[in-house]
Specification:
This protein is mainly α. It contains 13 helices and eight strands. Helix 1 runs antiparallel to helix 9 and helix 9 crosses helix 13.
Length: about 325
């Protein structure tokens, strides 16, 4: 199982098109991987505006412009396809998010192709990558903690029964799975640093004077592993959430993987749903083992750099159909 590849296999709900691992999928993967790298790359202009010319010497400016051109071309292809009546008829498809935006555009509203490209940026970069990372971290932790894996599988299979698959309507009853997900978001938040905030006016927080126009970074990793809030913060233990009212939807500030307040992640509801549904079906349909010759101690939990934190190495598991 390589959950990172799931990011590039399909982004169907939003754009009505599958991207398989080969062909277009490999192109998409290459472009988005480079985008992630540039997000984390060092640009002199970000810190020393007068030295922005150095970014051209280092080659970072050229990489940025090339990546922008490739992304812009990819987004334009998606938009043009949705405008093409022949493609729509041959694909025999229903409307998706891009169609909804194009309908608004046709109605005369001030929605341009550039606006739609901005939505596509969120779908490709923010929406899919974080979900695949969360699935992969969860499976890694479950393989390292067999008792948790067993308990989660028993819950899913007892509730779903012989239906053959887990459906959205089943998720509200999967209480322990939700505890597992809370613990994963605590230990492995998909976005370790939330998007920057800027103070509107001077304020005082916990004895510190914060000037207006100060840029703030919210460290969700530090919050989730704060020893003054959590017992044994470095241990993976979903049992800590059994009977707890703490949730991940921005109301409890000791656990805010999606942020909080008016700037909370707009895709939180869909993201949680997608991850829970994917995991529930993986646990329901398969028993999971490590490749022959490896043990749970061999699972590398190192993190790769990026705005979304993936595992440094692929998680390789053997699935056995139940």
């Amino acid at each position: 199982m390589q959950a990172r590849e799931a990011t590039y296999i399909h982004i169907l709900t939003a754009i009505g098109k599958r991207y398989h691992a080969a062909g277009e999928g490999s192109r998409l993967k290459r472009i988005l991987t480079e985008t992630q790298a540039l997000f984390m790359g060092f640009f002199f202009e970000d810190y020393f505006p007068m030295l922005g010319w150095l970014d051209r010497l280092t080659g970072m400016r050229a990489r940025l412009e090339r990546n922008f051109s490739e992304l812009n071309g990819l987004y334009q292809e998606v938009i043009d396809e949705h405008k093409d009546p022949i493609w729509r008829r041959e694909a025999n498809r229903t409307d998706d998010a891009i169609d909804a935006l194009l309908n608004i555009q046709r109605s005369g509203a001030n929605v341009t192709d550039e606006h739609i490209k901005g939505v596509l940026m969120n779908i490709f970069i923010a929406g899919s990558d974080t979900s695949s990372a969360s699935v992969e971290w969860t499976m890694a932790e479950l393989m390292r903690h067999p008792s948790v894996m067993k308990k989660a599988q028993e819950e899913v299979r007892s509730i779903v029964g012989k239906k053959g698959k887990v459906e959205e309507s089943d998720l509200d009853r999967l209480y322990y799975l939700k505890c597992v997900m809370k613990e994963v978001f605590r230990v492995h938040p998909p976005v370790p640093l939330l998007l920057q905030r800027e103070t509107i006016q001077q304020c005082r927080v916990d004895g510190y004077d914060i000037p207006a126009k100060t840029r703030l970074l919210v460290n969700t990793v530090a919050i989730g592993r704060d020893a003054s809030v959590w017992e044994r913060p470095e241990e993976f233990d979903p049992e800590r959430f059994v009977g707890s009212a703490i949730d991940i939807r921005g109301h409890d500030f000791e656990l805010i993987p999606f942020g909080a307040g008016r700037r909370i992640c707009p895709g939180m509801g869909v993201g949680i749903l997608v991850v829970e549904l994917a995991l529930a079906n993986l646990l329901y349909s398969f028993d999971w083992e490590l490749p022959e010759g490896t043990t749970k101690e061999d699972i590398d939990m190192s993190e790769a750099p990026g705005i979304t934190v993936h595992r440094k190495s692929h998680l390789r598991l053997v699935a056995k159909r139940v």
